[in-house]
């Protein structure tokens, strides 16, 4: 299970270093983004009580029961994500770009008849949908740099080495050929830490001139795609019931490159050193949804949906590379052994309450309130390391509420949409804007009798706090990244 210095532990919402699967893995796969089609994204995914859209399968499956025609749906999207980071009074900006397919699917309707006449009471439609929606995107980059005179990641390497003899710390012949087991051994062999006493070690830096330049670039990619089959029914156009089975695929890639440079000749024997860490996660999760929509009067719809916890079976592959350039012109480059580990993540159950007011033929106003208790996330199987992580989850995380509000105005065959959403922090004691997200969306559409073309723009704003390493009893400076994501989504749908 060992993962050498993988950037991945959220301590009070701060990214940091870890050598095992942690609460951040559980959080990463427990969160989702609003909407799937351009129509739903135009109102920021506030579609829980509206239905007749493929996104209903991912919010409230009862909405599939509102369809009256067979339909095929396809969406394409462009994503631009950027981060403005500040670290030790220095600023830096970076961005990534991605093309993807956020949704595609088929809806089949079955109209019931009384004799030769279409049924108008009782069960009048039974519908089935098959589709894929992108529930989360991991495309992103955080890039920051600054001069640090207080701490170094080498201090972290040295703390891991403390308690070992030199012979225990030194690399074995097989490790030079086949890869190293421990990051502290790699740092020792690269002349980045020194012995300062019996089984005691310190960073290879002059303690009276510790200023070094630090730079970290964390690049992530991948997505979670949910494949679902949904069955829904319409009872007298008053009650809509639905349920679905969801299979979610996971593809996550992370490259973390951390560098320290001796810019002012601080007495270290090295000029620069670089640690590059790679993580690849693949897996599949299973969950279910149940939903209902009630139309008590013609102009009002209310909805309730429950999503079961998703049980993910995940496989991590990870490896590291450490390189140092010394003052005497020598250089060293070492690689860790490639590690793999299989584990499970159990996500929280989610509840969504919805309401929509239908404004005759002029449009609608809708709202969703989604609730989840992130303290119920779990890592499995039950082993000592996971029990520690699960104890952290119980105390660090709490209940989060996501609110989505949107509206549509109809003018002839044209549709105009706006939406706003606030996604609360999953942390029990969130500080500032950390891990909170706000979405502002807008969209337009053209709707004919048998086809529709919709476009949506989604602007997301959030904040993340990034800490490169942890030192026991010592405060470590962190970077703050202001995230700005922009998505353009186009959806074409056609009845058949």
3D structure, described in words:
The protein has 496 residues and is mostly beta strands. It has a single domain (6-152, 205-495), classed as Beta Barrel (Porin), CATH 2.40.160. It contains eight helices and 26 strands. The protein has helices spanning 23-28, 38-42, 56-59, 153-161, 166-169, 173-178, 183-189, 384-396, and strands spanning 6-10, 14-18, 71-87, 90-100, 103-111, 113-114, 117-118, 123-137, 140-148, 193-197, 200-203, 212-235, 239-261, 270-297, 300-307, 311-326, 331-335, 339-346, 350-358, 363-373, 378-380, 399-411, 414-423, 437-447, 451-466, 479-495. The strands form three sheets. The chain has a 14-stranded antiparallel barrel. Strand 3 (71-87) and strand 4 form a beta hairpin. 44% of the residues are buried. Residues 1-19 have low confidence and may be disordered.
Tally of contiguous helical segments: 8
* Main sheet record: 14 strands, antiparallel, barrel
Report the CATH superfamily: Outer membrane protein transport protein (OMPP1/FadL/TodX)
Average pLDDT confidence is 93
CATH topology grouping: Porin
Share of residues in helices = 10-25%
> End-to-end distance, in Å?
51 Å
Strand arrangement across the biggest beta sheet: 3-5-8-12-13-14-15-19-20-22-23-24-25-26
The stretches of 5 or more residues where confidence is low (pLDDT under 50) are: 1-19
Count of discrete structural domains = 1
Structural class: mainly beta
CATH architecture type: Beta Barrel
CA-based shape: elongated
Q: Determine Rg (CA atoms, Å).
A: 26 Å
The first-level CATH class is given as Mainly Beta
Determine the strand fraction and express it as a percent band: over 45%
Count of β-strands: 26
